[in-house]
Design a protein that fits this description.
The chain is α/β, with parallel strands linked by helices and about 300 residues long. It has helices at about 30-45, 55-70, 100-105, 125-140, 220-235, 245-255, 275-290, and strands at about 5-10, 45-50, 75-80, 115-120, 120-125, 145-150, 160-170, 175-185, 190-195, 200, 205-215, 260-265, 270. It has a single domain (about 5-140, about 210-260, about 265-290), classed as Spore Coat Polysaccharide Biosynthesis Protein SpsA, Chain A (Alpha-Beta Complex).
Amino acid sequence: MQPTLLILAAGMASRYGSMKQIEGFGPSGETIMDYSIYDAIRAGFGKVVFIIREDFAENFKATFGPKLEGKIKVEYVYQEMDAFVSAGGVPEGRSKPWGTGHAVLCAKDVVKEPFAVINADDFYGADAFEKAAQFLINDCTDKQYALIGYQLSNTLSEHGTVSRGVCTVNKKSELVSIKERTKIYREGEGIVYEDEEGKTEVPFDSPVSMNFWCFHPSIFEFTEALFHKFVADNGDNPKAEFFIPIIAEDFMENRGGSIVVIPTSAQWFGVTYVEDAPGVKSSVDKLVADQVYPNSLWS
């Protein structure tokens, strides 16, 4: 069975200030997502599911529908505030989406096979998709998931601090914990993160999560129950978000599951800040010049 690619594209792009998901970075106007989908098709994925907001669905479908027709099966799912919220409804004062874990849950009815989850605005590289596909086809079970782990030094921005999930792994390369570090940056010859206790150096080769997960479809059943509990526990906090690591932690701690961290040599890049955009364009141009990608992906 071919795996599915689930792309989280419902984000509000608050820091970047535009709908960066459909901004063109490639020589023929390709978006970052186009390169992810192209890499996924080459690696053996059979379907792409876009998680989007209904208010920009028309524009989004007009951008991606025609060029992907006949190349990969496509589905669209809307992440709406009231999806999977039980009888009490959306808590008063809530205007913020429920987060990445809720976005995954919204795909429950259309994803029936092992699947990968990625962000819309991150460039992950061909190696990452090849490794994800191999895992999903050969090793993914209801007790074993995976996370594609990036080397921290390959994931920084030159234009400000970044947030990264820094992973601790055991001797079997299984995930032990993810600690969200919200202010990571280069300082001199090293990399540090800042918190209320000050600065701490982080090794260059620390594995970090860029939200590239590999899941078995059995995840949906316990995630729905977990989300209902989250809403009940956080109804009075309009900013609380149900993130994927909450699901991962529950899977490891309460369901007897393990998550293998698969290292990739790929160079990540993405548009965290508007100033990152020219660098992303030049990185894509270099990959095209090096013939990693054709000049026009879909023609």
